[in-house]
Design goal:
This protein is mainly β. It has a 5-stranded antiparallel β-sheet. Strands 5-6-7-8-9 form a 5-stranded antiparallel β-sheet, with helices on one face. A hairpin with a 2-residue loop joins strand 2 and strand 3. It contains 2 helices and 12 strands, in the order αββββββββββαββ. The protein has one domain (3-147).
Length: 162
């Protein structure tokens, strides 16, 4: 049995967030495990969340955080790939939702997934099934801006007039 299949059930929290709202408010949605599981990253009024579990079923894991505290790393604007990441925490376990788009015509197709870590150890690394990916990290950046946060000096800070 793959290591991820063994460890994920041990790391799961209890549901703490309502449904992942709508596709329009999702910054990442896709299927994993050959389509049997679904991951969702979304935002709503005042918070952001991550859910993982069977498609259309009760999530095995639901985490949420106030939008103002969300660890979101937007694309730096350089390089041949657009890459973004959002981190959620459950105790000492971090769930990093990521999305990558190669900007070169001959490049790889868009990809995304979740990497689960504890300290420096990778516990699971799940990629989205090709063709099931919906990503809108730009919408997440707009949601952060709407609550008065600006990305400066590699962190989200209160926006201030120049």
């Amino acid at each position: 049995m793959p290591r991820a299949a063994i460890l994920l059930p041990l790391l799961l929290g209890t549901p703490a967030m309502a449904e992942c709202i709508t596709r329009a408010e999702a910054f990442l949605m896709c299927k994993t495990h050959g389509g049997a599981k679904e991951l969702r990253g979304c935002w709503g009024p005042g918070d952001a969340g991550y859910q993982f579990g069977p498609e259309g079923g009760v999530p095995e894991l639901s985490l949420s955080v106030p939008l103002a505290e969300l660890e979101y790393i937007p694309w730096a604007g350089v390089g041949s790939s657009i890459w973004e990441e959002v981190n959620f925490h459950n105790g000492d376990v971090q769930y990093s939702l990521w999305h990558r788009v190669d900007r070169t015509p001959e490049g790889d197709p868009p990809s995304a997934g979740v990497t689960v870590t504890r300290a420096d150890e990778t516990l699971a690394d799940l990629e989205c099934v090709p063709g099931t990916l919906h990503a809108n990290f730009e919408g997440l950046a707009e949601a952060k801006a709407a609550i008065g946060q600006c990305w400066r000096d590699f962190s989200w800070q209160p926006c201030t007039a120049p």
